[in-house]
Amino acid sequence: xxxxxxxxxxxxxxxxxxxxxxxxxxxxxxxxxxxxxxxxxxxxxxxxxxxxxxxxxxxxxxxxxxxxxxxxxxxxxxxxxxxxxxxxxxxxxxxxxxxxxxxxxxxxxxxxxxxxxxxxxxxxxxxxxxxxxxxxxxxxxxxxxxxxxxxxxxxxxxxxxxxxxxxxxxxxxxxxxxxxxxxxxxxxxxxxxxxxxxxxxxxxxxxxxxxxxxxxxxxxxxxxxxxxxxxxxxxxxxxxxxxxxxxxxxxxxxxxxxxxxxxxxxxxxxxxxxxxxxxxxxxxxxxxxxxxxxxxxxxxxxxxxxxxxxxxxxxxxxxxxxxxxxxxxxxxxxxxxxxxxxxxxxxxxxxxxxxxxxxxxxxxxxxxxxxxxxxxxxxxxxxxxxxxxxxxxxxxxxxxxxxxxxxxxxxxxxxxx
Length: 417
What we know:
This is Glycosyltransferase WbuB. By secondary structure, the protein is an alpha/beta fold. It is built from 16 helices and 15 strands.
């Protein structure tokens, strides 16, 4: 099977960012003997710069090709980011027209222009179109007040409905997304839940390196470290995470790893409040982030207090649990249910610095026996629901069934014609 995967924000693990599509592509190429082409942007959104050819590396996996497309650089969420989206989508559409026809085209949000280009290409190439919904646009933009123009909202809402209706299959990452899309009159049978996950064996603990990664974080060995790893944007509500340090004793530290438009403001807030036990670090490659998590004592998941995020299930949830760390979430909804149902973490209250500090102190006072139990519970959850190899295999079977059904329909049409 020849599969095209298009995601504007996809990245190989060594660059950091969204590695889901690279890992799916790798599994399909190695385990299912598929020919997979991953279309991705040469502008890295975590580092906010163009990635030079020498930095891109090679997939070096038989059956997997990486097609890098230029997209307009940007540093803020202004018109340049819109140009970034438009340029990638247009170049994907143009370049795809001159490539060998795939058997199936798989295009991912969050923004809808890449899936639109994917649908157009699927018509040109006469192959099934699969829409992956990573984020609910335009609803997330509206909730975050990042989109107020009524004409643009109307256009994006129509495009969203159009893509839902025209997709041969829709893949979602959370149960909330599945229910949300089904509520719009979309056949639930064509919506598949394939959450984020972890590739088993992608990381192995190295006790000897914990002290080294503690030094890289800038924290002393005796401190209790609460770690946030991920985007630093308005949706992540990290101001409240930084402010939580005001309510923490000196033996606690908060470390934030990542980048985004809010990072400068967070640095200013740290300085203004004199929070020497808050550490703001640059992004690190995916293969290193596990060592940072392992050197910490708990993980933090933070999102703004909006209804649209109640159904979030971020990839960092799986990273924290895979390494065996308890998790604190500021999000009341699907994440909170997972943490409490599986005994792997706490809900601290939404946008509540003092509540987050209290949750950190509660985890700091856990016994070693309680920590070990949480680690085992987390690993058990990953084995059952977060094994990316199993998830990739499940999705591939569904795509193969879809392709077989499409071929059968075409043969019936040809016979009747």
